[in-house]
Amino acid sequence: MLKPRRLRFAPRLSATIATLVAVFAFTALGQWQLNRAAEKRALAEDFAGAGPALALPADSREWPRYQRVTARGRYDPARQFLLDNRIQGGRAGVEVLTPFVLDGGGAVLVNRGWRPFGATRDILPEVAVSPEPRTIVGRFDELPRPGIALEAPPAAGWPRLVSFPTAAQLATMLGRSIEPRIILLDADEPDGFVRKWTLPGTTAGRHLAYALQWFAFAATAVAIWLALSLHRDGEDA
């Protein structure tokens, strides 16, 4: 009667090194995704927070993103920017950035919301607003940035169509200094348009899913290494 050959554990050095490198890389990527998920949860808490609004003008350099803010002043309706390439419900349009001149000095751009183009892109939406004194409430945010920076031809006239500008570029076009961040106007504030503010980018849940995927890759690499390291008696290791 033939005896079954026994299995012996004899990992190859090259396979072991390759597996260690793969496990290290996959684990590091999984941990990075976990860290990104934690950052997104913190941002979501800041975004949803209902803490007291801080007043402009002030030294806002240390204020966190999405800090609720209030400002007293007036809109400058003569020089407004239309932020191009903004989509709502599958429809192309713009977000309206209106300079707000602060009573205490300085200015800040206020995102008053989204408006669709007319029948063609050449027909810009109506964005008029009264320059009467008022107090506005919103939250701080960064100007949106493109995935790939492209050079756009300079625009002219007002309101001015712009595509992913920097704060410095907008300040130059206005001919005055402005806050480096903008205000997302609260949905219940008057003289605004469509304002469905949401956190940009990937959600915390998606980052967690990516982390689990990377950890699964690491576990699979170990399983493959174990399977390849088992040999029957008489087989070459």
Q: SS-based structural class?
A: alpha/beta
Mean pLDDT: 87
- Compressed to H and E, one letter per element, the order equals EHEEEEEEEHEHE
Proportion of residues in helical segments: 25-40%
Domains (count):
2
Low-confidence stretches: none
Sheet-strand content, in percent, reads 25-35%
Q: Major sheet, described briefly?
A: 5 strands, mixed, barrel
Number of strands: 10
Specify the number of helices. Answer: 3
Task: Say what oligomer this is.
Answer: single chain
Radius of gyration: 28 Å
Layout of helices and strands:
Elements: E1 7-9, H1 13-48, E2 54-56, E3 68-75, E4 81-88, E5 91-102, E6 107-116, E7 134-141, E8 160-162, H2 167-174, E9 182-185, H3 204-229, E10 230-232
Helix pairs in contact: 1-3
Please characterize this protein's 3D structure.
With about 240 residues, the chain is of the alpha/beta class. The chain folds into two domains: about 10-45 and about 205-230; about 50-185, no CATH class. Helices cover about 30% and strands about 25% of the residues. A hairpin with a 4-residue loop joins β5 (about 90-100) and β6. The protein is elongated.
Features of this protein?
26% strand; 3 helices; five-stranded mixed beta barrel; alpha/beta; two-stranded antiparallel sheet; 237 residues; 10 strands; single chain
